[in-house]
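REQUEST FORM: STRUCTURE PREDICTION
Request ID: SP-0412
Submitted by: Lab K.M.
Chain count: 1
Length (residues): 274
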Amino acid sequence: MLLLGLTGSIATGKSTVSKILFAPPYSLPIIDADLLARQVVEPGMPGYRAIVAHFGSTTPDLLQPASSTVPEDGVNGKGRPLNRAALGRRVFGNDEGRMKDRKVLNGIVHPAVRWAMAKALLKYYLQGSWAVVLDVPLLLESGLDVFVGSVLVVAVKDPEVQMRRLRERDAHLSAEEAADRVKSQWDVRDKARRVEGRGKGRGLVVWNDGDRGDLERELEKIMKDVRRGSPRWWAWLLLGFPPLALVLAAWEMWVGRSAKRRWEDEERREKAKL
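STATUS: Completed
RESULT:
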């Protein structure tokens, strides 16, 4: 079973690509890290309690306000839902305080999401899926790219396209808030260069500066190559011989780690020249 890591940056079109891959003719199962990240911080979950414990005393509007539809102790009696906009203002930005808070938040959410992803992967493996898409915005930043066979990054060449799409999608954001959200993430063009460094078939880039039709045509070309490299009979073979699947998984991890080390070494050399 091919693990196809899907990533990008805010407002580059990753979610659109995820929807396309989920629908025919691809019909691939999607493990959506954003969806899992919301589920693991729902009221009553350990992640929710950890966030409230750390941020609650210094973020008065951390929880959604009580109302006729949201009781003081929440719909299920386990607390009111998080106010995601307020939490976003607390952690998005490049100043030292926000970066520290973002690290704390990621330290709460990421381990819970990884466990949920592992359970979903096992389910799809047992179902004999030929490929599974891991839709993870922070695939590279979190180090999860070393566990996948191929990485597909959705990128834009023009930063203005990214900013325009973000403000069209989230009209409540000011220009400064939109810029903070973009700057708080790894530049998507750098992500594309790193992914391409994984090598042919392992690092794939979809440039999404055009319209949806352009995106679908570009994606179709890429997925034809992916399909040839991972036929359905191979998925059934791995299902029938679990030891072979484990060996392959170990090999893919080694290849992924090697690619990551090469990139990091190259980055150090480039910085040394400055």
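NOTES: The chain has a mean pLDDT of 90.
Reviewed by: T.R.
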